[in-house]
Write a structure and sequence with these properties.
- The chain is globular, with a radius of gyration of 21 Å.
- It contains 15 helices and 12 strands.
- Helix 1 crosses helix 2 and helix 1 (2-36) crosses helix 13 (283-302).
- The protein is α/β, with parallel strands linked by helices.
- Helices cover 49% and strands 18% of the residues.
- The strands form 4 sheets. Strands 2-1-5-6-8-7 form a 6-stranded mixed beta sheet.
- The protein has one domain (2-77, 161-351).
- One of its GO terms (molecular function) is hydrolase activity.
- This is HAD family hydrolase.
- Keywords: Hydrolase.
């Protein structure tokens, strides 16, 4: 009996944390989506963060008794880098971050190609050459262009399967694609616009690059609801320590890495994911946190509770700057993987000295 009581107290701690910390933030985000997105436009929630962002949105709609269409869309930067590897329009994004090491490691970690695929495209000798970004950017692009046909042979099955998957969600039919993510620079939005040759409108909690942009002859609008025109390192705490939010706003699976048409039923898809971090291994505990968050989103919509940006910034500032304010029993779920930039798995609380 004591163990049952202790377990319930533990769960209540998780739920309470979700209510007080994430509840107001996601309620604010959902409220702004309702106000700013055209009523008949479907919303597509992106990547791992989109999993809970969509749930919060749906609970807010339920509380407000509003009907709107939304979908959770599997996507990741690295996967888009991969299926656009032969498209020179994508290099402004995929070759932007710094790198030093073997060409093989660049292609394997940033573009998700397997060992056999890398050897099939580039052969043995070239893969061991050392490359540095941004210094060797032109050299790398030249190499990719020289092997374009082989790259296409390797990536086309995944690319075609992914386009079929997007078609099942109604993405292909949209004139302007309305996308939702936590933030910040709009890389996934830009890459989807390139892949689909479509206008896009990105809705973010924080947008580093807001406004209207032209990307390959298509309009890309980026809009931030909590803050705009801030970049990492500018001193805006919710962005500088965004890893804190990302570690909680995660789907139950690892990074989206691939898709194939099912061998036995070509109308179905097989999805492939990377390794799980702590918040995914202990997803049942993260769900307890989010129960409090989602209930609060529904409650705030039903009772017309709203928040100003200054109130949320003050709330976030407390959690993101003061040590030990996060309940001790929750700290182990704050892991996040950062493979695209080569940092591996990082615990957000430990990284910022908050635990």
């Amino acid at each position: 009996m004591a163990n049952v009581t202790e377990s319930r107290v533990h769960e209540a701690r998780f739920t309470s944390f979700g209510t007080t910390f994430m509840g107001p933030l996601l309620s604010f985000f959902a409220q702004n989506l309702v106000k700013n997105v055209p009523e008949k436009a479907p919303l597509y929630f992106l990547a791992r963060e989109g999993y809970w962002l969509q749930q919060a949105y749906k609970h807010y709609l339920c509380g407000a008794d509003i009907q709107r269409e939304s979908h959770y869309l599997l996507v990741s930067r690295a996967f888009l880098f991969k299926i656009l590897l032969s498209d020179s329009r994508s290099y402004a994004y995929s070759l932007k971050s710094s790198f030093s090491g073997a060409f093989y490691d660049l292609i394997r970690t940033r573009f998700l190609l397997s060992d056999s695929q890398i050897k099939q495209i580039f052969g043995e000798e070239i893969t061991q050459e050392l490359v540095y970004l941004p210094e060797d950017r032109k050299k790398i692009i030249d190499t990719l262009n020289q092997h374009k046909d082989r790259i296409d042979d390797v990536i086309t099955p995944s690319k075609q399967a992914y386009l079929s998957y997007l078609d099942t969600l109604g993405v292909i039919q949209q004139d302007t694609l309305h996308l939702v993510d936590l933030g910040y620079s709009g890389t996934i939005q830009s890459l989807l616009g390139i892949l689909l040759d479509k206008d896009t409108h990105g809705h973010y909690l924080i947008s580093s690059n807001p406004g209207e942009h032209v990307i390959d002859n298509h309009n890309a609008t980026m809009q931030g609801y909590l803050k705009e025109n801030v970049k990492i390192g500018d001193g805006y705490l919710p962005l500088d320590r965004s890893m804190f939010l990302e570690s909680l706003l995660t789907a139950p699976f690892g990074q989206f890495r691939g898709i194939r048409l099912n061998t036995f039923d070509p109308t179905q898809f097989d999805f492939y994911y990377g390794r799980k971090v702590a918040s995914q291994r202990y997803f049942h505990e993260l769900e307890q946190v989010m129960i409090g968050t989602l209930d609060y989103c529904k409650h705030s919509a039903k009772h017309g509770i709203t928040f100003e940006t200054e109130e949320l910034e003050m709330l976030l500032g407390s959690y993101l700057s003061k040590a030990n304010i996060v309940p001790r029993g929750v700290t182990h779920i704050f892991d996040i993987d950062d493979d695209v930039t080569g940092n591996g798995t990082v615990n957000a609380l430990q990284f910022f000295g908050l635990a």
